Amino acid sequence: MIIVMEAHAGLEQIQQVSSKLEEKGFRVHLSQGVERTIIGAIGQRTAATMVLFETLPGVEKVVPIAQPFKMASRQFKPESSLIKVGEQIVGDGQVQIIAGPCAVEGRSLFMEVAQAVKEAGATMLRGGAFKPRTSPYSFQGLEKEGLEILAEARQITGLPVVTEVVDPRLVEEVADYVDVLQVGARNMQNFFLLRELGKIQKPVLLKRGPSATIEEWIMAAEYIISSGNHQVIMCERGIRSFENYTRNTLDLSAVPVIKQLTHLPIIVDPSHGTGKWKLVEPMALAAIGAGADGIMVEVHQNPSEALSDGPQSLTPENFARLVIRVKKMINALQATAEE
Ligand code: PEP
Ligand code: MN
Question: Residue 252: exposed, middle, or buried by beta-carbon count in 10 A (0-12, 13-18, 19+)?
Fold first, then answer.
């Protein structure tokens, strides 16, 4: 439930409600808005407890949260979460552009593409060191060597790095090398992995499972947040539908829905969302139009030679063009916002 305090409620009254909640076994989260304070409470709510809190001084109303997710909910925390990644802030209105190859394939190749995407305007680097592949015979990633390459690229370019973690036992090690830990679509409901990620204090990029409803996806975020890590960034990467022209069906309506239901930032991955490089730029622009906090795209010097996801990878030249058009889109949206 949430307890909405009256606009004039003082600190003492807020404290009284908070300690009463804790006394009754609730976990408390305070949201101090400009107008009023909202106290989020997680625990066993009964009609009697709601009445009890309604009688406390300074309380305007007690509202039950009907949805199964609490800490991720915007009702619980009305202000949008800002997630700090290196020098960047995800969710503050700036559009993040995360770029790099699907997989880290080797040191010199990665350094070259990292420099190229940086020069074109990327704000973060991506690259998989552990690759969850459909076939056990496909390239599985460079693993630890890949992490070392990512850390070096981060040092050389100064850009933060995003990489996927596939195993709960590797969370701490991966967190030592990179700035953002990605949960891949196939692992969205690996609850042991989510819980481990809840124990670290680094941002997590949580991809939507290929068959996950929005509610299941937010519940996955709830696992991480309720385990102690509030730094969750959602990532729409397409879902499975009857349509098979594209690799997945990019559900861009998820962007405003996530913003309405949660306080979490959301970025869009049009590379996995479409599976076709020619569709990446138009869907990246559409994602920005829908209000996404950023995009994540795959870039490879030579897509036809890529060890994974070549067909959806942009060349550095095509990526540079995408960045120019994304910036124009951002400017156009800003101009309409000012009208
Ligand atoms: C990836 O980002 O390379 C990846 C494997 O994505 P997903 O988990 O969305 O398929
Ligand atoms: Mn990929």
Answer: buried
Continuous H helices in 253-298? 254-261, 270-274, 277-290
CB 100 within 8 A of CB 193: no
CB of 247 within 6 A of ligand 1: the answer is no
pLDDT band at 253 (very low <50, low <70, confident <90, very high): very high
Which atom of ligand 1 is found nearest the CA of 103? Answer: 3
> What distances in angstroms separate CA 73 from CA 36, 42, 67, 168, 294, one per listed residue?
18, 12, 8, 25, 21
Q: Which atom of ligand 1 is nearest to the CA of 235?
A: 9
Q: Distance from the CA of 184 to the center of ligand 1, in angstroms?
A: 5
207 lines ligand 1 (CB under 6 A): yes
Residue 151 near residue 177, CB atoms below 8 Å: yes
Pick the CATH number of 83-338 from 3.40.630.10, 3.20.20.70, 3.30.1360.40, 3.40.50.720: 3.20.20.70
pLDDT tens readout for residues 180-196: 999 999 999 999 999 99
Q: Which residue has the tokens 């080797």?
A: 106
Q: Across the strands, what pairs with 314? A: 299
Among 217, 126, 102, which Cα is nearest to 180's?
A: 126
